[in-house]
Amino acid sequence: MEDPKHRHIRSFVLRQGHFSEAQTRAVEEGMPRWGIEYRPEPLDLQAAFGRAAPKVLEIGFGMGAATADIAAARPEVDFLGIEVHGPGVGNLLKLIDDKQLSNIRVIRHDAVEVLAHMLPDASLDGFHLYFPDPWPKKRQQKRRLVQPEFLAGILNKLKPGAYIHMATDWEDYALQMLEVLSANPALQNSYDGFAPRPAWRPLTKFEQRGLNLGHGVWDLMFTKRAD
Questions:
Q1: Sorting pLDDT into bands at 50, 70 and 90, what band is 140?
Q2: What is the pLDDT of residues 176-203, one digit of tens each?
Q3: Rounded to whole angstroms, what are the CA distances from 142 to 58, 69, 133, 136, 159?
Q4: What residue spans define the domains of the chain?
Q5: Mean pLDDT computed over every residue of the chain
Q6: What is the arithmetic mean of pLDDT over 140-163?
Q7: Is the pLDDT reported for residue 110 higher than 70?
Q8: Molecular function (GO) terms listed (predicted)?
Q9: Annotated binding site
Q10: What class has domain 4-224?
């Protein structure tokens, strides 16, 4: 049984879901090409992508459509996506093949462990977190990923001048994100409060549906101070 003293906030809730035939085939064919196996040892990011380029980490890419669109729009940047949801991993791998993308790599594992054991300090130029599980009930909110301890772990992996971009459609979570990010002296808000959605972050179908219903979406953009 897990020692309660050593529990950490996981970056996911494990939902296996149903694999389509195409997603199953994409995992079988795509993971050997674009996947990175979890190992508790430092990962050489330049070797993993086969080039020297800015590296951006995304945690929880869902079905991967936005990730693939962003990678297609920013071919000069390499994107490392971490996700545990199998059909989502399969769908992103299919999109990589469909769009002929070479600047995405995928790890299917708990992001907290990947951060702790695989990513070298000061190795990332950016970090994306889009629409994480909001855990809306009051008693659940301690499970939210964006907490000071998690943020400190992310900051260790970012280079000076690197950016953090988050988005959520839950206002109270947006306010919590803003509070946690603003409270860290190593970060500087790139805007006065919330940020406009950057042109390279596409609207997801889910997000567009929410906007059509009058729901809000909040973006945050911070940079790691150079000093």
A1: confident
A2: 999 999 999 999 999 999 999 999 999 8
A3: 21, 32, 12, 10, 28
A4: 4-224
A5: 90
A6: 95
A7: yes
A8: tRNA (guanine(46)-N7)-methyltransferase activity
A9: 58, 83, 110, 133, 137, 169, 204-207
A10: alpha beta
Cβ atoms of 72 and 99 within 8 Å: the answer is yes
* pLDDT score, position 10: 45
Q: How far apart (Å, rounded) are the C-alpha atoms in residues 142 and 158?
A: 25
In three-state secondary structure terms, 174 is helix
Residue type, 88: G
Contacts of 95 (CB under 8 A, 6+ apart): 64, 65, 67, 68, 101
How far is 109 from 57, CA to CA, in rounded Å? 14
d(CA 217, CA 189): 18
- Which residues are part of a known binding site for S-adenosyl-L-methionine? 58, 83, 110, 133
Instruction: List the catalytic residues.
Output: 133
Comparing C-alpha atoms, which of 81, 102, 79 is closest to residue 90? 81
